[in-house]
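Record minuted for completeness.

…
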Amino acid sequence: MSAFSGKVNLRIFSLNVVLPTLLTVGLFVALIFGYIIPAFERNMLASKKEMLRELVTSANGIADRFYRDAQAGLLSEEEAKAAAMSRIGHLRYGVGNKDYFWITDMHPVMIMHPYRPDLNGGDLTEYRDPKGKALFVEMVEQIRRSGEGYVDYEWQWMDDSLSVVPKISYVRAFAPWGWVIGTGVYIEDVKNEIAAIKTRLTLVSLAITACMAFLLVLIARNNLKLDIKRNEAERELHISREKYKALVEASTEGTAMVLGNRCIFSNEKFRSMFGVGQSDLVSPDLSGLIGPGRADDLDTIRRFAAGSENFVQIETSLRTSGSGAMNALLSLSKVTLGGEEGLIIVVKELSRDDLSDEERSERGRQLLALADASEIGIFKCTIGRGARLLDVNDGMVKLLGYESKESLLEVDLSEVVDEDSDLRAFL
């Protein structure tokens, strides 16, 4: 088996978690500043233009009312025009209530301007803004083309004749008197309003972005922790398997480990006995190993597999790789690795036993180590009344949930076995 690295692959983590997180935040910011805010600016300017059109329509309605009064004989035409000019000249709206209306004729001559009385009665044909645009001539041309429309130019800032700023106006003809009625808004006002709303929208967007970034960082952090835990679990599983493999190889008995009905480890002794090697399939009841005529042993193994016991030992006859039979002591221990259940199989041949006391002692130490690794409890006890534990292995301490071997050896066997009937049967 190749060496295992428990380190998190930072490149994969960056591609799978960090990069999507940054792209999500980046796309959100791009959406806000690349689409939503520009669209908002366009919509706000369009709204201002629509407002100008409605305001000029209202001013035309005032002129039309006085025109109808003149037609009805309630006023003379001159009185009606003067009243209309006065009423329209006093209309105000906008920031500081300083936005206004003006009236020219189709020459153009200024008929009424509330903030530039110096222009009233003057010929505007040659009147140009600081950039050279003949703005009133252009307004008249717009009226002649479509009867109404928008014109961009530069004009003094409200009632401040020393300040000139960009402005957009809407003009409409009042045909009965040959008037051109207009009003406009300063682009600077629109820009200031847009900037104020953009600032608020930006702050809200940044707050949302910060929240998104925080949540995504938490998700990325949790994913990183999960990756670290998964790698650690895989590393521990690898170490466990290597440990079991080392124990199997060190055993002087035929020993193998089966997970998912497949032999994952086997020592040389086991392979020479049965010809079963790594990755070979092994039936759940070991029917391929049990010799003929041993139905009772097969039933015992099946009950063990389906029951809650973790260890069973039976004397049986096993098929060998040479098509012969061998009397053996078969020890089976249940194990769980990586959530997968399996068996540790230990085979001791019973046909001969010519081992020395030292070899038997060494074998016992190996089996005890294997039992501890497999979480199998082994104990020595007295019998009869007041039976006590004399010795236990670490597996027994862990299975019974005691803090130490010494604390377990202080209790009677009756405190370890729940049912009195079970204790009597055991003794």
About this structure: The longest strand covers residues 160-174.
